């Protein structure tokens, strides 16, 4: 499995756009990039997944450059409730999944 | 409502007790997982079941014993635990554990304290 590297923590203010970048230099051809969000004392929640270019849903956007060695999770106009830990994972497209969560990025949104 | 329900939410047990954690998923998924999350540590995968067969056992001590009687239910039986086993135990399920198009759905966990 490709190892991922992301910042340990980020700070933002309400209403700002937040971009969290994840590095995955050893990503394989068939791997997908997946992001989860975790609030305190809750299980992680799937946010978004992509393979290349851009994916957008009602929660976030995911930007993946052509070389796929990194990805950026973009949260538009964050609110206090977006304070959470965000995990970037690389997921194999074949074979049984053994998802390994890193330490994630702790996002703190202030008023 | 996450679709994955874990009980109890909180559990305090002594080192000589025997207890069980329960997980139930209402999503029609075929794979179920146990993860452990200790304070300030990443989630650790403990066990994976696919169609009620254990497919992953991540070198977990034998004082943790999983059971998957059907694809909707997963148990974690605990006995003679140590204080360092205190953690948030998370259950998850996925439609099909073998493809990328099968994200995990987590429950809210059981907060376990071993005294």
Number of strands of chain A: 9
Largest sheet of chain A: 5 strands, mixed
Number of strands of chain B: 11
Q: Which pair has the most extensive contact?
A: A-B, 26 and 30 residues
Widest β-sheet, arrangement of strands of chain A: 1-9-8-3-4
| DSSP helical segment count of chain B | 0
Overall helicity of chain A: under 10%
Please mark out the parts of chain B with pLDDT under 50 across 5 or more consecutive residues, or reply none: none
Distance between the termini of chain A: 38 Å
The number of helices of chain A is 0
Tell me the strand percentage band of chain A: over 45%
From the helix content, strand content and strand pairing of chain A, which structural class follows?
Answer: mainly beta
Topology of chain A as a string of helices (H) and strands (E):
EEEEEEEEE
Structure report:
The complex is a heterodimer of chains A (111) and B (115). Chain A is mainly beta and 111 residues long. In chain A, 0% of the residues lie in helices and 47% in strands. Chain A has strands at 9-13, 18-23, 32-38, 45-50, 53-56, 61-64, 70-75, 84-91, 105-110. In chain A, strands 1-9-8-3-4 form a 5-stranded mixed β-sheet, with no helix packed on it. Chain A has a 4-stranded antiparallel β-sheet with strand order 2-7-6-5, with no helix packed on it. The radius of gyration of chain A is 13 Å and the shape is globular. The mean pLDDT of chain A is 92. Chain B has 115 residues and is mainly β. In chain B, strands 2, 4, 5, 6, 9, 10 and 11 form a 7-stranded mixed β-sheet that branches. In chain B, strands 1-3-8-7 form a 4-stranded antiparallel β-sheet, with no helix packed on it. The radius of gyration of chain B is 13 Å and the shape is globular. The model of chain B has no long low-confidence stretch (mean pLDDT 90). Chain B starts with a strand and ends with a strand. Chain A binds chain B through residues 30-32, 34, 36, 41-46, 49, 91-104, and chain B through 2, 4, 31, 35, 42-43, 45, 48, 50, 55-56, 88, 90-92, 94, 97-109, 111.
């Amino acid at each position: 499995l490709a190892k991922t590297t992301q910042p340990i923590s980020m700070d933002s203010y309400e209403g700002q756009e937040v971009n969290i970048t994840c590095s995955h230099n050893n990503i394989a051809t068939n791997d997908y990039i997946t992001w989860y969000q975790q609030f305190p004392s809750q299980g992680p929640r799937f946010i978004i997944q992509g393979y290349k270019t851009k994916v957008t849903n009602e929660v976030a956007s995911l930007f993946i450059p052509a070389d796929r060695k990194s990805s950026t999770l973009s949260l538009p106009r964050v609110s206090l409730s977006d304070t959470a830990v965000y995990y970037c994972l690389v997921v194999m497209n074949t074979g049984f999944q053994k998802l390994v969560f890193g330490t994630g990025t702790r996002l703190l949104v202030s008023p | 409502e996450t679709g994955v329900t874990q009980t109890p939410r909180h559990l305090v047990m002594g080192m000589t007790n025997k207890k069980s954690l329960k997980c139930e998923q209402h999503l029609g998924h075929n794979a179920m997982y146990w993860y452990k999350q200790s304070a300030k540590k990443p989630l650790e995968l403990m066990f994976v079941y696919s169609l009620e067969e254990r497919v992953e056992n991540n070198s977990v001590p034998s004082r943790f014993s999983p059971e998957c009687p059907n694809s909707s239910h997963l148990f974690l039986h605990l006995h003679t635990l140590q204080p360092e086993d205190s953690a948030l135990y998370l259950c998850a399920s996925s439609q099909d554990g073998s493809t990328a198009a099968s994200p995990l759905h987590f429950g809210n966990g059981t907060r376990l304290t071993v005294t």
